[in-house]
Amino acid sequence: MERMSDGSSFFVTTPIFYVNDVPHIGHAYTEVAADVLARWHRQRGDDTWFLTGTDEHGQKILRTATANGVTPQEWADKLVEEAWKPLLETIDLSNDDFIRTTEKRHEENVQKFLQHLYDTGYIYTGEYEGFYCVGCEEYKQPGDLLDGEGDYAGQKVCAIHSKPVELLHEKNYFFKMSAFAEQLLALYEERPDFVQPESARNEVMSFVRSGLDDLSISRSSFDWGVKVPWDETHVVYVWFDALLNYVTAVGYGQDDAEFERRWPATHLVGKDILRFHAVIWPAMLMAAGLQVPHRVFGHGWLLVGGEKMSKSKLTGIAPTQITDTFGSDAFRYYFLRAIHFGQDGSFSWEDLHARYTSELANGFGNLASRVIAMVNRYCDGVIPAAGDMTDADAAIRAIERTATATASIAIDRLAIHEAIGTVWELVDALNGYITEQEPWALAKDPEKRERLETVLNTAVRGLGTLAVLLSPVLTKATATLWTALGGDGVVQDVRIDQAWEWTGSGTVTPLEALFPRIETSAE
């Protein structure tokens, strides 16, 4: 993938989340990953846009709203205001836009897109019978079904939701997806990074090679959705409508200049919705004569007790259960550092607590406190100038530069865990440097004054570089640290690709603990 630090466009999206329930840490994981990428690109000078939002149509929402005695719109409004928008604050997101599929800008332009496909012959009328999972809002192939157990014995259940599927027979409108199989396979071959990671790409390629069916894209048995423009007795299939948020939010159908500036996007999705994004979505775009996405990245699941989190199995953990104790910085850091981005990862309270203590409190937080305390104690808060540099000092300067460059390359590959790991090499190096140089011992000997000042200067420079490099991840702690270091302006505005060149007032102010100890059991 080409480097993007020439100020080119970087448009990153999360899936739009289905409002039939409240967010859990699996949703927040995708949001935080997209946020770190967006913040990093912004700080590198790229023309960045970060989109998230909510998916509010479909049968499941209609049924949930009806069961709760409200209209689907009232149900969606309540959940967006009380659950989904507050999530943005809980985990400190910097999204540029939040799209709801019930907004006029979305519904009107979905209709334009659909009409265009209809006019060009990619949509036809047909009849369909199949097993439908309301939980997935998707017709299921026989291979996606399991034999039910317990209460559902004798019935076919969805492999993802473990709930019975419904046999439906409807007259629907169909999208000629099968016409794009060859073009899709050519796309995957020509652009190996279009679907990532490799496991996701292999799965998508074998799915398309096994043959594509046309896609039923309308429903007539209920009315909660975008109306099909040429036949108001039908509403658009929820996924067909939802996928279009990625273009309706950046001007498709109404603002050509904005669309030209932003599209195509980098999509981050959970691997359970990979096929929609890597097969159906590019086929839709090809049919409309639009560019396919820049890339589709299918990350793994968060597992709790070895199982994928789900509300129905009560394994869903609300993000606030973590942030109320550990804070948003620790939430962001933990999920992006502890889990190889792209693979499944297990969450445990013990691991979170251990990493918080060893890496954030003892590793980074303690380093920051010690360095600033020593500048206050030995130099009255004035950052000293460096004298003659030794190999040890030069080694720290070199790590500042290599960490900056290597982390940036990892971000381009969407290897967020590697980027953070690379920056953490500087945390470890600085801790080792202070242990070896023993500034507290140097301070006792007036003849070693210049050496003491060089060591403190080197440590402060490294700490400021860390503040810049970690600012997309640890948004709050780095802002606090930056103020204590006397850094110029706002840390989020400092060029991350030149992190080691940061400037400041030359004086430090006392710093409270960035990551206070959490002594109690984290359960």
Automatic annotation (TrEMBL):
<keyword id="KW-0862">Zinc</keyword>
<feature type="short sequence motif" description="'KMSKS' region">
    <location>
        <begin position="308"/>
        <end position="312"/>
    </location>
</feature>
<dbReference type="InterPro" id="IPR033911">
    <property type="entry name" value="MetRS_core"/>
</dbReference>
<keyword id="KW-0030">Aminoacyl-tRNA synthetase</keyword>
<feature type="domain" description="Methionyl/Leucyl tRNA synthetase">
    <location>
        <begin position="11"/>
        <end position="371"/>
    </location>
</feature>
<comment type="function">
    <text>Is required not only for elongation of protein synthesis but also for the initiation of all mRNA translation through initiator tRNA(fMet) aminoacylation.</text>
</comment>
<dbReference type="GO" id="GO:0004825">
    <property type="term" value="F:methionine-tRNA ligase activity"/>
</dbReference>
<protein>
    <recommendedName>
        <fullName>Methionine--tRNA ligase</fullName>
        <ecNumber>6.1.1.10</ecNumber>
    </recommendedName>
</protein>
<feature type="binding site">
    <location>
        <position position="158"/>
    </location>
    <ligand>
        <name>Zn(2+)</name>
    </ligand>
</feature>
<keyword id="KW-0479">Metal-binding</keyword>
<dbReference type="InterPro" id="IPR041872">
    <property type="entry name" value="Anticodon_Met"/>
</dbReference>
<keyword id="KW-0963">Cytoplasm</keyword>
<dbReference type="InterPro" id="IPR015413">
    <property type="entry name" value="Methionyl/Leucyl_tRNA_Synth"/>
</dbReference>
<dbReference type="Pfam" id="PF09334">
    <property type="entry name" value="tRNA-synt_1g"/>
</dbReference>
<dbReference type="GO" id="GO:0006431">
    <property type="term" value="P:methionyl-tRNA aminoacylation"/>
</dbReference>
<feature type="short sequence motif" description="'HIGH' region">
    <location>
        <begin position="17"/>
        <end position="27"/>
    </location>
</feature>
<feature type="binding site">
    <location>
        <position position="136"/>
    </location>
    <ligand>
        <name>Zn(2+)</name>
    </ligand>
</feature>
<comment type="similarity">
    <text>Belongs to the class-I aminoacyl-tRNA synthetase family. MetG type 2A subfamily.</text>
</comment>
<dbReference type="InterPro" id="IPR023457">
    <property type="entry name" value="Met-tRNA_synth_2"/>
</dbReference>
<keyword id="KW-0067">ATP-binding</keyword>
<dbReference type="InterPro" id="IPR009080">
    <property type="entry name" value="tRNAsynth_Ia_anticodon-bd"/>
</dbReference>
<keyword id="KW-0436">Ligase</keyword>
<dbReference type="GO" id="GO:0005737">
    <property type="term" value="C:cytoplasm"/>
</dbReference>
<dbReference type="InterPro" id="IPR014758">
    <property type="entry name" value="Met-tRNA_synth"/>
</dbReference>
<dbReference type="InterPro" id="IPR014729">
    <property type="entry name" value="Rossmann-like_a/b/a_fold"/>
</dbReference>
<feature type="binding site">
    <location>
        <position position="133"/>
    </location>
    <ligand>
        <name>Zn(2+)</name>
    </ligand>
</feature>
<keyword id="KW-0648">Protein biosynthesis</keyword>
<dbReference type="GO" id="GO:0005524">
    <property type="term" value="F:ATP binding"/>
</dbReference>
<feature type="binding site">
    <location>
        <position position="161"/>
    </location>
    <ligand>
        <name>Zn(2+)</name>
    </ligand>
</feature>
<dbReference type="GO" id="GO:0046872">
    <property type="term" value="F:metal ion binding"/>
</dbReference>
<comment type="subunit">
    <text>Monomer.</text>
</comment>
<keyword id="KW-0547">Nucleotide-binding</keyword>
